[in-house]
């Protein structure tokens, strides 16, 4: 088993030998002493569940693969953030809203499912419904409040503390588009939100840099044209609307447009703050690897059909969400990319995390490990 996992890993990550050597030469992890994470359901580790206990995400089969219970992650197991934490030798991050009484010196997760980069008022003014008021601005307020209990801002102590933190800024911004798309808004209107969304992300990074943070990882948007939910909602009779992978071209172009805006802004931030390390986490291209050739990476059931959900060409049906009584769930989620129509399986998230670690190991993850599928679950983990 171990050798087949390794040979799989080597086929996916040809530079793995380099990383393993590097890891051996630097056996001491701990390059980062803490992680603070902001974002939405791609990174949530329980915040939605702590604020609304009746959510589907609180029911099996969510969480079944790794945790063997639903713990508020929108997947069958770990999400990208969990793999990053494990790869740098830190514990899995507790969700902020369930963290009272816990020692948070190794970090905490502010990401909330449904969260947006723009404030709730932006959507209210445009009569776009959002599930909860948990924008990046709200998450940043939580962070500022928490910081006062972790370090002493009057002595420069917080700058010292945040210097060894890794900040995961996202994924955030995807819902600013998802909510209006699924409420039937027009493409041009939604596209016009882009600069404001990117500005909100950039402003949050600036605030954190002023507090002393120097290392950021900023994910872009996934290729939404390959998402089961979008494929279902925007199903088209025209073959030309689809690319050779079965994804909707115009929606992938939309994701790329957002990602270009975000990368331009990151370039500006790098010039403004040369001492900071700001990595663009290229979720789009990392994910395109498995959308182009799912079989090559073990996704035998393809990348477009959801493992868990209702009937439909993509196993995705908004009337029968995963976690509801009528939903069907596949036998082996590791053979699927898509978990519940919107979110990805643990196997797909592990793939994304490992690509990011591999692409950035020299600069950002000098001591990081590639995480195998068989990494054991410790009962003290969340
Ligand atoms: C969202 O929450 C923040 C902070 O709790 C509050 O200041 C803001 O007014 C709220 N916005 C809306 C639209 O409810």
Automatic annotation (TrEMBL):
Transmembrane ranges? 12-32
Among InterPro entries, the record links this protein to:
GDSL (IPR001087), SGNH_hydro_sf (IPR036514), SGNH_plant_lipase-like (IPR035669)
In alphabetical order, the GO MF annotations are: hydrolase activity, acting on ester bonds
The keyword Transmembrane is assigned to this record: yes
Mind telling me which SUPFAM superfamilies this protein's record contains? Answer: SGNH hydrolase
Q: Which keywords appear in this protein's UniProt record, sorted alphabetically?
A: Glycoprotein, Hydrolase, Membrane, Signal, Transmembrane, Transmembrane helix
Q: What does the sequence similarity comment in the record state about its family?
A: Belongs to the 'GDSL' lipolytic enzyme family.
Can you name this protein?
Uncharacterized protein
């Amino acid at each position: 088993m171990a050798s087949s996992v390794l040979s799989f890993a080597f086929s996916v990550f040809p530079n793995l030998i380099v990383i393993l050597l590097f890891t051996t030469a630097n056996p001491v992890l701990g390059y980062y002493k803490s992680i603070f994470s902001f974002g939405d359901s791609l990174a949530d580790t329980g915040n939605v569940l702590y604020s609304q206990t009746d959510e589907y995400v609180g029911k099996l089969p969510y969480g079944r693969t790794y945790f063997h219970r639903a713990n508020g992650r929108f997947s069958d197991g770990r999400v990208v953030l969990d793999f990053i934490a494990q790869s740098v030798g830190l514990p899995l991050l507790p969700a902020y809203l369930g963290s009272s009484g816990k020692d948070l010196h190794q970090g905490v997760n502010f990401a909330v499912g449904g969260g947006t980069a723009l404030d709730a008022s932006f959507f209210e003014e445009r009569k776009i419904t959002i599930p909860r008021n948990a924008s990046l601005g709200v998450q940043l307020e939580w962070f500022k409040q928490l910081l006062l209990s972790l370090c002493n801002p009057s002595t420069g102590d917080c700058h010292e503390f945040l210097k060894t933190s890794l900040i995961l800024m996202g994924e955030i911004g995807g819902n600013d588009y998802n909510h209006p798309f699924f409420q039937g808004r027009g493409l041009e209107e939604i596209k016009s939100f882009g600069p404001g969304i990117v500005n909100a992300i950039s402003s949050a990074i600036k605030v954190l840099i002023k507090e002393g943070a120097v290392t950021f990882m900023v994910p872009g948007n996934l290729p939404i044209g390959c998402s089961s939910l979008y494929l279902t909602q925007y199903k088209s009779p025209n073959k030309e609307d689809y690319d050779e992978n079965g994804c909707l071209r115009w929606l992938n172009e939309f994701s790329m447009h957002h990602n270009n805006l975000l990368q331009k802004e990151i370039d500006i931030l790098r010039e403004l703050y040369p001492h900071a390390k700001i990595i663009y986490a290229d979720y789009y291209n990392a994910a395109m690897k498995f959308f182009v050739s799912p079989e090559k990476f073990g996704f035998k059931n393809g990348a477009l059909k959801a493992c868990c959900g209702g009937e439909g060409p993509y196993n995705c049906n908004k009337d029968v969400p995963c976690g509801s009584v009528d939903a069907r769930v596949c036998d082996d989620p590791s053979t699927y990319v898509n978990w519940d129509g919107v979110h990805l399986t643990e196997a797909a998230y592990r793939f994304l995390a490992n690509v990011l670690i591999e692409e950035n190991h020299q600069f950002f993850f000098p001591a990081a490990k590639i995480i195998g599928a068989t990494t054991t679950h410790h009962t003290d983990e969340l």
